[in-house]
Amino acid sequence: MTLDTPTLESTRAALRAKLHGIVPEFEVDLKAELAYRINCLKAERGAVILGHNYMEPALFHSVCDYTGDSLELSRVAATTEADPIVFCGVRFMAETAKILNPERTVLLPALRAGCSLAESITAEDVRGLRARYPDAPIVAYINTYADVKAEVDVCCTSSNAAKVVESLDSDLVIFLPDEYLAKNVARETGKTIVLPSTAPVSADARAEAAGNGVHYDIVGWTGRCEVHEKFTVEDVQAVREQFPDVVVLAHPECSPEVVDVSDFSGSTAAMTRYVREIEAPRYLLLTECSMGDNIAAEAPDKEMVRLCSVRCPHMNEITLEHVLASLRENREQIEVPEDIRVRARRSIDRMLEIG
Ligand code: 13P
Ligand code: SF4
């Protein structure tokens, strides 16, 4: 063992220092023991652990080789030579890793770890929209399953959604499945969003409407993130009344009204960078609550205003216990049928080329 090899004592000390005041010490000590065992097994197996920003703080700060938002982790997953890839995130993220790096074993340390957005649309739904709007390119948020990605033209994440939409040379774009994200993107790009029931189907009808000053630029869907839809304008107003100097950050899966009364909106990674850089003494995060704890651990000099604790139940399925079992027993292995993988990869690659 070299001087740099973490021991149980050094793992515990590092985690105690990082999570002081955020996680009770007895809990940190229990989790440090699990983290130590995971890190030993990870080294033995040559594995890499990727952790989404929504992982619980002890896991996030102890076993992950890379942490980040969906886009950052997809890029790492695409190029890593380590095997297996243990994806501490939800199923659509682990699937994306498998699509991008099929030679590797990709493990999801949970049985299901779904996502209300990914569950809100099927490949059949996309085929229906394609038949209805044959001339409109289809963009899918990365929070979709592989068979949906296989049916669309390009994917996007919360960090590049507006850029992807702007790159498409078409009077009409279909953006799936997050209604709120689509509305936020429409506003950012100056486009108008409608739902499939109201947008004219033919290009001629749209041209005629445009002649009358009515534009149909983005056709959305009615998926919602079950976490971000809970934040309200009233929540923000109440916090601003109590703390007039608070800086409010909202994930773009929040409603456009909530984004409107916030100071900044961006992906989980963009929000983390923003908090690091602001000089304001306190901030409010309108996103999943473990991410708040992870940022609070990174920025102890600033006060995080605790509005409420909305934990993503799907991200919550990933625990240190499950990560250890996953590495020991090689489960749950993610598989994507090859014909779907190849078509889904095309949509993801297009996104990665755009940025
Ligand atoms: P990010 O890509 O911003 O990390 O978002 C993923 C997600 O699921 C947010 O709810
Ligand atoms: Fe899905 Fe919302 Fe959970 Fe993100 S926070 S994984 S969008 S349910």
| Through-space gap between termini | 42 Å
Low-confidence stretches: none
Number of strands: 13
Radius of gyration: 21 Å
Q: What kind of sheet is the major sheet? A: 5 strands, parallel
Helix content: 40-55%
The overall pLDDT, averaged over residues, is 94
**Which molecules other than protein and nucleic acid are bound?**
1,3-dihydroxyacetonephosphate, iron/sulfur cluster
Strand order of the largest sheet: 6-5-7-9-8
Specify the structural class. Answer: alpha/beta
List the helices and strands in order: HHEHEHEHEHEHEHEHEHEHEHEHEHEHH
Q: What does the overall shape look like?
A: globular
Count of DSSP H/I helices = 16
The proportion of strand residues reads: 5-15%
Put the structure in a nutshell.
By secondary structure, the protein is α/β, with parallel strands linked by helices. It has helices spanning 8-18, 25-45, 57-60, 70-79, 91-100, 123-132, 146-149, 161-166, 179-189, 203-211, 233-242, 256-260, 268-277, 289-298, 320-329, 338-354; strands at 48-52, 66-68, 85-88, 106-107, 138-141, 154-156, 173-176, 193-194, 218-219, 247-250, 264-265, 282-286, 303-304.
SSE blueprint:
Elements: H1 8-18, H2 25-45, E1 48-52, H3 57-60, E2 66-68, H4 70-79, E3 85-88, H5 91-100, E4 106-107, H6 123-132, E5 138-141, H7 146-149, E6 154-156, H8 161-166, E7 173-176, H9 179-189, E8 193-194, H10 203-211, E9 218-219, H11 233-242, E10 247-250, H12 256-260, E11 264-265, H13 268-277, E12 282-286, H14 289-298, E13 303-304, H15 320-329, H16 338-354
Parallel strand pairs: 1-2, 1-3, 3-4, 5-6, 5-7, 7-9, 8-9, 10-11, 10-12, 12-13
Bound molecules: 1,3-dihydroxyacetonephosphate and iron/sulfur cluster.
1,3-dihydroxyacetonephosphate is lined by residues 53, 69-70, 143, 157-158, 225, 251, 253, 267-268.
